[in-house]
Structure formats: structure tokens, C-alpha cells
Design goal:
The chain is mainly α and about 500 residues long. Helix content is about 60%, strand content about 5%. The protein contains 19 helices and three strands. The protein has a three-stranded antiparallel beta sheet with strand order 1-2-3. Strand 1 (about 95) and strand 2 form a beta hairpin. The radius of gyration is 25 Å and the shape is globular.
């Protein structure tokens, strides 16, 4: 029998095939070879594949999200909707030391907001309201909760924790709200229009990051299609903007660090500013610019570095000052009275100076006591943080997230060390800053742990963590394996999320 050659790496290049092997061996091996070739094609032709896989895949899951996620049960949809209407109308006010949720010029709008907020609370109860009953209750014109009411004096309603978010994260929603007002859409229709605008915008931004990054493309695909990522892009939330901009600035900085040129400075400056303004803790992403240049080059490149980081350094603190670092700490006063200075960041910083161990111990108690919950929220808990996915989903997606960045980056030893140090520093700084912000503004001193931190806040550092793992592990998976991991993880995430929403809401 003559010698044969195989293109697949799973069989010897040159060797004799024993005629004693059963026929099913050849059928099985042929099927495996075809699958390997298909995955290898996806892996080597990713620039076109991301348009053929990522965007339609996101669109399919989003359609299911909209069908299975009623307006009352999508996190802060109602609070964000009220906040956005205020931004577009300019109806903001300050009352009682807290930023107001705004004044509704129509009593009906306030009634609609209250209707869906109340319905969301009923959804959260066992054997409560379901989607068909919700729609029927809203469409019923005789319902007293949303009946037509004459225009009266504006109704004051406090923000529900959304006042600290910069309008940059709302840009797609604001545009959709303006169009909805132009066509006089009612509450649910405008809400779905705003969701659609947000999904298209943030999905396109994430796809752009995948297109420009020189390595770990499949890792970015899996991160962008996690349950938490899908859900946050499908509802009204600042998290969609936060993750999308974090993906882009991470990709741009890593491309500049590994290339022969520093790339376009204005592009990094734009995306760095958008990333830092999306959420306050993301100011630490400024550190990524330091890995673009070698340490010896930094003094000569100070103008380029300043062009990238200065807009964020100026605008982010300005916004914090404008909103008085407010994140609706008044909600804690409803549970019990606490001294007002416990929520004053400046007073709390002075307290930390005199009691340096208070914050580290409080942060450690929060991490050690709620670590399992934070892990689940990082992967994805949907609804009002009360719809859990199957346990095996969290385990499987965690393993796949760890494996997908296994790739040897083609960079020099000095660049490898610089990227490892900076990415590790960004991850550590982000975690500390998140806990510090909630300690300063949301945690009374008589509480022994940091309150308010959720696992979804940390999804934005997963792209940075992927490069940190790739640099530290420095191991290469076969060409087809990362594509298989990302596609498998995306299918698990999408199917599990849709099933959980359908089970809870229908």
C-alpha cells in the first residue's frame, strides 16, 4: 500500500494506513477532519467570519430577549427610561439634597412609570404576574393605574441610582427617545425602540473591536456573547456602553503595543474618553496607554500620551463633581437611619486616614462572603438579578473563558513583560476602585462589609484579563480549538439565557 499524506494535524504526515482498521475508523476520522478544516477556516478568515457569525448570532438572541423580557423586568429599564426622558427634555431638579429623577409634565407618564415598576415587583414574586397579563393590564384603557389624567403640577420622583451615569452611555437611547417622541410612540413601543438602538450601536462597537484586535479575536467573541453581555446590550443600561468601549480601547492599545507603529492617537483618545466616561471606575483604563511605548520612550512621547489621557482626566472628575458623586444612597435610609456624613466621600476619606484597616477589611468581607454570587453575576444573572441560569452553565462558561485566550502572542520579551505588568495592574486597580467607590458613597460605617457591589461591574475587565492570561500562560491551543470554544460557549450562553427568561416570564 502506497504512502499517503494528510493535511490534518491529527494524523501522521507520512505513514502507512493499516488495512486492518475497520471502515468506521475512516468515516469517523473523515468527519473529524472536515470539522477541523471548518474551524481552521473560521480561525484563519476571521475578518469576514465576525460579520457572518457574531452579528447575526447577537441579533437572534436579542430578538428572543425582546420577546421574553417584558419592560417591567429588565433591570433598570424603567429608571433609565425616566432618566433619559429627563435628559432629552431637560426636566431635572435638585430637591432634599438628592438629584431628582425629574419632573413629568404629564401625569400619565408618571403613572406609566409606576405601573411598570409595580408590575416588575409582582414579577419577582413566586407565581406572580406573567408577560401576557402585563400587556393586557397595560392595554386596558379602564385600568386606574394608567388611566388618562389631566396635566397637573410636575411630580417629583428621585433617581433610583442612575444619576451618577454620564450621558455618553445614553447616546443611542437619547437618539431613539427623540425619534420616539417625534412619532408619538407610547411607553412600551418607545422602550423597545430604545433597546433596539442600543443593541445595534453597542454590537457594532464590539464587532469593531474584534475586527481591529490582532490576536485573541475568539476570546473577544466569547466575552461579547456571555449572558451578562447579551442581556446588558438588550436592555436599557450603561453596562452595554461600558463593555463595548472597554473592548475597543483594549484592542487599540494592544494593537499599538504589539505593532511597529503607535497607531492613531486621536482614535485611542476618543475611545479612551468614551470608556472613562461610561462608568467612573473605568478611569483606570488610562493605564493601558502606558504599554504602547517602551519605558525609555515615554519622556519623548509625553505629548502623545497626554493627548490620549488628558480628556478623560479632565472630563471624568468634572462629571463626578457635577453630580456630587451621588449614587442614590438615600435608598439605605429607608432601611434605617445613618448619619449623612457616612455617605460623604471627602469625610469618608478623612476617616480612612485615621482608620486605615477599615476599608480593606470591609472589602475582604464582601469578597469572601459573596464571592459565589459575584461569580454568577459576572457570567450572568438576568431580570432583576433574580433569574439564575443552570449551575452547569456557570461552570462551563468559566472553564471556556479561561481556555479561549490560550495563545502565544508574537511580541518581544520586553513587550510581553510590559503588557503583563500593565494588564495585571489595570485588573487589580479596577477591582479596588469599584469597592472603594461603593465604600465611600454607599456603605455606612456600622456595616462591616462594602455594600452594593455586583459581579456584572467586573465584566469590563475580562478583555484585559484575557490578554493577561495569554501573556502569563504563554501556551498555544491548536488553531481550530479557540473557534470551537468560542462558538460552543456562545451557544451555551444564548440558549441558557433565552430558556431562563422564557421560563420566568411566560
Amino acid at each position: 500500500m502506497g504512502r499517503v499524506q494528510y493535511a490534518s494535524s491529527g494524523c501522521p504526515r507520512r505513514g502507512r494506513v493499516s488495512p486492518a482498521l475497520p471502515p468506521r475508523y475512516y468515516r469517523t476520522y473523515s468527519a473529524i477532519t472536515v470539522a477541523q478544516h471548518a474551524l481552521r477556516y473560521l480561525d484563519t478568515n476571521f475578518c469576514s467570519t465576525n460579520w457572518c457569525f457574531y452579528r447575526p448570532f447577537t441579533g437572534v438572541w436579542w430578538a428572543h430577549h425582546q420577546l421574553h423580557s417584558p419592560p417591567a423586568r429588565t433591570g433598570r429599564d424603567i429608571s433609565f427610561r425616566a432618566h433619559l426622558l429627563i435628559r432629552t427634555r431637560g426636566d431635572s431638579a435638585h430637591q432634599g439634597g438628592q438629584w431628582a429623577q425629574g419632573y413629568s409634565r404629564r401625569a400619565r407618564l408618571y403613572s406609566e412609570l409606576q405601573f411598570f415598576r409595580t408590575a416588575g415587583e409582582v414579577f419577582a414574586r413566586k407565581d406572580g404576574l406573567h408577560y401576557p397579563q402585563l400587556v393586557a393590564g397595560y392595554r386596558n384603557p379602564t385600568s386606574s393605574s394608567i388611566a388618562d389624567e389631566p396635566d397637573e403640577a410636575p411630580i417629583f420622583a428621585p433617581f433610583a441610582g442612575t444619576e451618577g451615569y454620564n450621558p455618553v452611555a445614553y447616546i443611542p437611547y437619547i437618539a431613539a427617545a427623540a425619534i420616539g417622541r417625534l412619532f408619538k410612540l407610547d411607553f412600551p413601543d418607545m422602550l423597545f425602540l430604545m433597546r433596539w438602538f442600543g443593541l445595534v450601536t453597542f454590537t457594532a462597537i464590539a464587532a469593531y473591536s474584534i475586527a481591529v484586535i490582532p490576536a485573541l479575536k475568539w476570546a473577544f467573541v466569547l466575552i461579547a456573547l456571555l449572558p451578562v453581555s447579551l442581556y446588558n446590550r438588550s436592555v436599557l443600561s450603561a453596562d452595554g456602553a461600558a463593555l463595548s468601549t472597554a473592548l475597543v480601547i483594549t484592542a487599540l492599545c494592544l494593537r499599538a503595543a504589539g505593532g511597529t507603529a503607535a497607531g492613531r492617537v486621536w482614535e485611542r483618545s476618543l475611545w479612551m474618553t468614551l470608556c472613562a466616561l461610561s462608568k467612573q471606575p473605568q478611569i483606570v483604563f488610562l493605564l493601558l496607554e502606558l504599554m504602547v511605548y517602551r519605558v525609555k520612550e515615554l519622556p519623548r512621547q509625553w505629548l502623545r500620551v497626554a493627548s490620549v489621557v488628558l480628556p478623560s482626566v479632565i472630563l471624568s472628575p468634572m462629571w463626578v463633581f457635577a453630580v456630587s458623586a451621588e449614587i442614590a444612597a438615600w435608598r439605605l435610609q429607608e432601611e434605617g437611619h445613618h448619619p449623612p456624613e457616612h455617605f460623604d466621600p471627602l469625610w469618608k476619606l478623612l476617616y480612612m486616614w485615621d482608620h486605615p484597616y477599615h476599608f480593606p477589611l470591609a472589602a475582604w468581607r464582601a469578597l469572601s462572603g459573596w464571592g459565589d454570587r459575584l461569580w454568577q453575576e459576572l457570567i450572568g444573572i438576568v431580570g432583576w438579578q433574580d433569574i439564575l441560569l443552570p449551575t452547569w452553565t456557570y461552570v462551563a462558561l468559566t472553564v471556556l473563558l479561561f481556555l479561549v485566550p490560550f495563545q502565544k502572542l508574537q511580541v518581544s520579551g520586553a513587550t510581553r513583560a510590559r503588557v503583563a505588568v500593565i494588564t495585571g495592574l489595570v485588573i487589580l486597580s479596577y477591582v479596588i476602585l469599584v469597592y472603594l467607590i461603593f465604600f465611600l458613597t454607599y456603605t455606612p460605617l456600622d456595616v462591616d462589609h462594602v455594600r452594593g457591589v455586583q459581579g456584572r461591574y467586573f465584566v469590563v475587565v475580562l478583555p484585559v484579563a484575557a490578554f493577561f492570561v495569554a501573556i502569563v500562560v504563554n501556551r498555544e491551543l491548536p488553531n481550530a480549538v479557540p473557534a470551537a470554544i468560542a462558538i460552543t460557549g456562545s451557544m451555551i450562553a444564548g440558549i441558557a439565557t433565552v430558556e431562563a427568561l422564557f421560563r420566568a416570564h411566560w
